[in-house]
Q: What sequence folds into this?
């Protein structure tokens, strides 16, 4: 949930800066987060791990991949359509995390009250 919240803040910042010249969109890499999460789950028995995702700053990222957004005439790279799509996907990921946590808390509550 914390990852989805931080990503939502960055995506909202991208939309807020849509008219800012030379502004480059920022985002958290979902794939990196999922890999780090999988690794921390696998290592949970050995030791606790605090892995924080890193942000991508296109100003210093080097050449752009062909699949990345096109830089516009004012130097920005923000597409409102892309940002809205990413916000919707992020909202779905956050909702899934909330549903999962509610289910886990319900199981924990049932175990504590010996109802299960």
A:
């Amino acid at each position: 949930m914390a990852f989805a919240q931080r990503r939502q803040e960055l995506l909202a910042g991208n939309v807020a800066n849509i008219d800012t010249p030379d502004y480059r969109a920022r985002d958290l890499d979902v794939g990196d987060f999922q890999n780090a999460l999988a690794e921390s789950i696998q290592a949970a028995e050995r030791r606790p791990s605090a892995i924080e995702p890193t942000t991508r700053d296109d100003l210093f990222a080097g050449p752009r991949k062909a699949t990345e957004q096109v830089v516009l005439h004012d130097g920005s790279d923000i597409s409102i359509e892309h940002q809205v799509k990413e916000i919707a996907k992020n909202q779905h990921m956050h909702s899934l995390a909330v549903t999962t946590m509610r289910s886990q808390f319900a199981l924990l509550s049932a175990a504590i009250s010996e109802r299960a």
Summary: Residues 10 and 16 are 10 Å apart (CA to CA). Strands lie at 26-28, 55-57. The chain is about 55% helix and 5% strand.
